[in-house]
Description:
With 324 residues, the chain is of the alpha/beta class. 40% of the residues lie in helices and 16% in strands. It has helices at residues 13-24, 59-69, 83-88, 90-111, 147-166, 188-200, 222-235, 252-260, 289-295, 303-319; strands spanning 4-8, 28-33, 50-53, 73-76, 116-120, 169-175, 178-179, 207-210, 216-217, 220-221, 241-244, 250-251, 268-271, 283-284. It has a 7-stranded parallel beta sheet with strand order 3-2-1-4-5-6-11, with helices on both faces. Helix 1 packs across helix 7 (222-235) and helix 4 packs parallel to helix 5. The longest helix has 22 residues, at 90-111. It is globular and about 60 Å long. The termini are far apart.
Amino acid sequence: MSFRAFITGIGGFAGSHLAEALLRTNNHVEGTVRPGGSLTHLGDLPALVTLHPCDVRSSGDLATTIRTAKPDVVYHLAATTSISEGEADPQGTMEANLTGTLHLLEAIRKEIPGALLVHISSSEVYGKVLPEENPIREDRPEVPVHAYGLSKLLSEQLVPFYERSHGISASILRPFNHIGPRQSDRFVCASFLKQLVSIELGRANPVLHVGNLDPVRDFTDVRDMVEAYRLAAEHCEPGSLYNIASGQGTSIADLLSQMLSLTHSQIEVREDPNRVRKTEIPVLIGDVTSFTAKTGWQRRFALRETLSDTTAYWKQMAANQPKG
């Protein structure tokens, strides 16, 4: 099945991978990039997709962009995605995640009411759960514990309202942690691997700075994650909500251990108090039974392969930077 696809945040970590996945299945792809933002993640994609400089916080610009693109399916990825950024700037996070979603829904209602929206939320809406309550199902009550999780939950709640009130077709996905090439080093996996590559290249002292290594998370390769997004548009009914996850938990300590096994350097691991979050969920693992039953989605990338590919990405990034 091919269609006219539109990705808000196409220049981001997941957005760029989603664009590639959609092109591989012969879809027409367009999307928004932040005005003045980096296009590094897109590589050669600008020759294959149509890019629209547009900030989702601008209702007029977004409506004009949607009117021009006339997509069949809209994947909404544009958002503030960092928990730490949400803590530092809760207002900005709400403007990007909540107001941006409102603007998109209004644009769909007015310009392309027959289109399908795949709204990308987050597992952070669940909040703090007890270890024994994992893996988390979609019917678990949502009690977010930080501004980012709250912003994603509130943005979710706009979607069924527009379905009921305006007949918009939409499904909601709650991805758990996803990692891989192109992820910002604001996130734990990318942060560790970027540091390790710098150490191996002799550009940094052999000290790896870390935060709390105890939390257990559910890691999925971003390339598997965006394949789930693609399949959701083809198989999920309007009004549905699904977790996207591996269903397996890995502690940050175990993740780091696997990374260290890929290096030949002797490295000191040192806790940095500035990297320890004030609010930390001890265990977060997703139950993905419903989504796999609906779509047949399966993971292709083992964790070690993801770490190897992401290490190669950071080595390439380092090679492209001048020494100094």
